[in-house]
Amino acid sequence: MTSKAAGREPDMKVREVAEFLNIDPETVRILARQGMFPNAYKTGTTKNHPVRIPWADVQAYRLKQPRVHG
Asked: Which of 11, 13, 23, 66 could link 27 by a cystine bridge, Cβ 3.0 to 4.6 Å?
């Protein structure tokens, strides 16, 4: 079953989140460690396994950010 069939977006890579939010990938990693993406998880058990962040966490973070008027 694909994630579309399951009715949800796939979890995102740090690089994808950084591009979507227009911030540096290291900032995304820091935010994840600080708990700003509460459902972020490592794909394995070692230090070097990549982090995945659920789309819902990214959306929730984005909605909490102040709007820039300009």
From this structure: 23
Residues 27 and 33 sit within 8 Å (Cβ to Cβ): no
**Helix boundaries (H) for the chain:** 14-21, 25-33, 55-64
- 53's enclosing H/E stretch is strand 51-53
- Tell me the pTM: 0.79
Q: Which amino acid is at 69?
A: H
Q: Do residues 40 and 57 make contact, with C-beta atoms less than 8 angstroms apart?
A: yes
Give 24-43 pLDDT, tens digit per residue.
999 999 999 999 999 999 99
End-to-end C-alpha distance for the chain, whole angstroms: 44
Task: Compute CA 35 distance to the chain's CA centroid, rounded to the nearest angstrom.
Answer: 11
